[in-house]
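FAQ

Q: What does a record look like?
A: Structure on top, sequence underneath. For example:
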């Protein structure tokens, strides 16, 4: 029996290693890498930027856990909000947590308050996933402060689908991307519904996003403008 167990463990080790190595992370993999997304309105006028840095990459059993710091700036370069989120490779599959979708521009007034975040997973499939494939929904709830200046925000991302695979060009270079579409509902003081489109590239992450209102009119976009490894 002991020999049989030892043999099973021996056979499983390559499988576990293979699962991890097959994960296609939608993030830079070298700790210390920094990259920047610039935000624009529908007319192409810059509205601000977000700086990212990969703080750590740790292997825990069958997981590889990435921790990313984001710092949001307004269009004049004033720092508004700093936040961390995590992402994981689990058994060969990649996922963000929905904290990646926190709007730093809206969170600025709460920088020095205690903020509670309840974030679901946010799956990004591999590059060979067929167009039309449905993806799991995501939710994010953020609460901060209290009284008249308190925050209670809920973001729901639904009807997520793989749209296509395409190559796009930004000021940071050319990127082979998986394109996703989804519907977004943000509940703050009122419900705001819209749609978004996102481009993801392996070992980079999100390369471009486009936001639309519920009538399909583009409201703004963002794209990666620099990366330093």
């Amino acid at each position: 029996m002991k020999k049989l167990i030892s043999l099973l463990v021996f056979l499983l080790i390559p499988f576990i290693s293979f699962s991890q190595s097959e994960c296609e992370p939608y993030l830079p993999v070298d700790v210390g890498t920094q990259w920047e997304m610039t935000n624009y309105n529908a007319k192409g006028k810059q509205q601000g930027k977000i700086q990212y840095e990969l703080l750590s990459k740790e292997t825990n059993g069958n997981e590889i856990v990435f921790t990313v710091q984001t710092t949001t700036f307004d269009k004049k370069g004033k720092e508004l909000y700093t936040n961390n989120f995590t992402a994981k490779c689990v058994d060969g599959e990649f996922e963000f947590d929905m904290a990646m979708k926190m709007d730093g521009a809206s969170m600025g007034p709460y920088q020095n308050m205690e903020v509670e975040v309840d974030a679901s997973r946010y799956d990004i499939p591999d590059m060979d996933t067929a167009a039309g494939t449905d993806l799991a929904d995501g939710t994010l709830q953020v609460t901060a402060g209290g009284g008249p200046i308190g925050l209670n925000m809920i973001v729901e991302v639904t009807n997520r689908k793989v749209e296509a695979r395409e190559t796009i060009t930004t000021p940071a270079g050319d990127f082979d991307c998986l394109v996703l579409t989804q519907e977004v509902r943000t509940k703050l003081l009122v419900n705001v519904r819209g749609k978004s489109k996102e481009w993801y590239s392996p070992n980079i992450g999100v390369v471009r996003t486009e936001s639309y209102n519920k009538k399909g009119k583009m409201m703004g976009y963002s794209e990666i403008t620099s990366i330093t490894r």
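Q: Is there anything notable about this one?
A: Residues 1-21 have pLDDT under 50 and may be disordered.
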